Amino acid sequence: MSLIKTLLSGIIVLFATQSLALLPEDYLRSNDLEELKREYQLMKEAVNNPDLIWVPSYTADGSPMIMTLSQTKEWVKKNILEEWDGNLQEYNEQYIALLFKAVESSKATKQKIKREILPAMASRIKELEAKQGDTLDNQEDDYYHECPKINPDPSSGSIKRFYQSGNKKNYRDCYYYRTSHPRANSLFLETPYINKQKDGIQLEYRYKQKFNLYYLSQRTSYSNGKFDGIVDYYSVTKTGAVYHREQRSYVDGKMHGDQIVRWPNGKTREERQTFMNKSLKTRYYNKEGKLIQCYKYDSFGKATSCMPKK
Fold this sequence. Notes:
The chain contains 6 helices and 16 strands. The longest helix is centred in the middle third of the chain and has 45 residues, at 88-132. A hairpin with a 2-residue loop joins strand 10 (242-251) and strand 11. It has 2 domains: 2-132, no CATH class; 139-305, Outer Surface Protein A, domain 3 (Alpha-Beta Complex). It is of the alpha+beta class. The strands form 2 sheets. Strands 3, 4, 5, 6, 7, 8, 9, 10, 11, 12, 13, 14, 15 and 16 form a 14-stranded antiparallel sheet that branches. The chain has a two-stranded antiparallel ribbon with strand order 1-2. Helix 1 (2-21) runs parallel beside helix 5, helix 3 (33-47) runs antiparallel to helix 5 and helix 4 packs across helix 5.
């Protein structure tokens, strides 16, 4: 049992430290454009592959292993069975717990690479291309990376598509409010595509006329056309304040991890733990933050109360 406890307690810490070590400082200082492009593409393919899990190897150098989901399951079983001395039910619970943490930690590592490392590498590539004169560096190419907040040419319509330079399969769609809307020509939907599939962060904006408020209403993470990562929802209170209403977590299109719904005062309203579309435990709270209901679910989806005994 000691090995299991070590794995369960250490896996998050290992991923947190290893993800920081993954930053390719040498590449960010490199002047070798072609090498940097190759490394960028390889890393991008790895983090966008939903079947690849980044797992701590517990080797002397502390380097992580990259395995498929099926290989990860076998790795977890092997490590549990080596010293297992409990009953079958405890084994299943520990197996699910460890596999859950492995997938969660891998997801966190991939998100860090997507949000911090890949953009830094892309910026360095663009910088080197500009120095070597290999890019046009025109306005349209800039819009491929980020939609302009105001429609750059309303006369040509409210929907714009900006392609990656030299690649018609990668593009960004930008939708704008029509000229008759109170927020005329303002951006309301921004969606990136890789190989003609949604990939990256989609942003959706809304306008609340009562408060003359233009705000981000939804932030969705996609990979290969599926939900992958965090989906955030924002709403407006009765007094006109924007609050983080809901946060959902996905892996390869399946709900996985902590799902959270909040009251307008910011306190948690519902908290649900999920594992690849299956609910494990759900807690409900009142507006003051007091736990009022708790349910846990077995492998068949049957719910039983998990409220603390008084």
